[in-house]
Amino acid sequence: MGAASKLTGRKAIIAAASLLALAACGDIGAPSEPPAPPPEAVGVFASDELADLASGPNDIAFWIHPNVAFASTMITAGANGIAAYNIEDLSEVARDSSDAYANIEVSYFGFGPEAAGVVAALTEAGDRVRFFGVENATRQLIALEGGPELAVNARTICLGRAVGDAAPTLVTMGGGELAIYSLDFDMSAPSPAIAVAEGPRLSVSANASACAIGADGAIFIAEATSPDIYKLDAANDISAPFATTRRAGGDALAALPGETGASLVAALDTDENVVSILDAGDGSLLGAVTIAGTADIDGVAIASAMGATAANLGSLYRDGAVALAVEGQDGEASAVRLIPFSGVLNALAAEGFAPANPRGERPALTIDDGLIIAPPALGVSPDPAPNESGE
Questions:
Q1: What predicted TM-score, i.e. pTM, was given to this entire model?
Q2: Are 66 and 117 contacting, i.e. CB atoms less than 8 angstroms apart?
Q3: What is the pLDDT of residues 225-246, one digit of tens each?
Q4: DSSP letter at 13?
Q5: Across residues 127-139, what is the average pLDDT?
Q6: Phi-psi region of 331 (alpha: psi -120 to 50; beta: other; left: phi over 0)
Q7: Residue 120 phi/psi, 5° resolution?
Q8: Cα-Cα-Cα-Cα dihedral sign, residues 32, 38, 44, 50
Q9: How many Å apart are CA 50 and CA 293, to the nearest integer?
């Protein structure tokens, strides 16, 4: 496949996108043949509920604590701003009410426990992407200066990095255009800031509604009106579908990296309130799940947003979690309901998937005297006594 196939991570995706843009073949192609009937969705019992919300979140993401797994947070974005909740008891630990937001994404600068978490939030108007740092020790949100100048209002964003990349990539989609931005910390700024370098732009469907960045740097794209998933990387363009959920459409996507390079993609179809799980490598559909009710927690009949991670959140969520937002109906309050990702894997009889830590591993450096040292990392040093199991 030539030199491009030897590239990985951010360089590979920018190179692939640049070639597509130059060739003017970036439009999402014709849909796939009519798919086979979708597999029956399997119910996974709800495990927790964030109840009595004034309004349902527009998006959900997860931040992974550097050394105490059950101190990780679920972060929601909506009309009332951004709120972070401790995953163990769903108590609120941080909030920013300065704007209303349509999308929220989390990634990291640096590696390991010292990695600096960063939140990207798209305003409801779609005219601005704001950035916040997450302070490792206190979990507070710190507003960061900087951000991309959007040529057109964005409908959705995604933020992520390939394994081994020290900094994340931001993707915006809207108005039939996909834009890629490389991010870094601006060390020269008088206050904490994000430096943005604009990359290639290419045409996508005006119906492109969600995206996610995989562990190899690939960009996955979903359309609200189609069951097809597209993949942009060194080996795939977006002229033909990469996979299909066999559902009505894709309203949210999440990439779930695995330790051995085997990764998954979760796709939410709000028309059927079903989360489909696909193999990120070959596009095969592993199955689909719904959130089923228990004696204490209702199931999800109408989902408005999804967050998913396979990272260790401790205890019940040692293998990650899937969260669905429920917009209140007929006078009922809105809520977010969760299921453990281990329950998803068990329901689909999916074996051999080992989740990877999105904070990554600090690469060791070999120096001339044969010693192995670790380079300095960005971020606030975490508390001592790491406990990765969360127990």
A1: 0.87
A2: no
A3: 889 999 998 777 788 899 999 8
A4: H
A5: 96
A6: left
A7: -110, 130
A8: positive
A9: 14
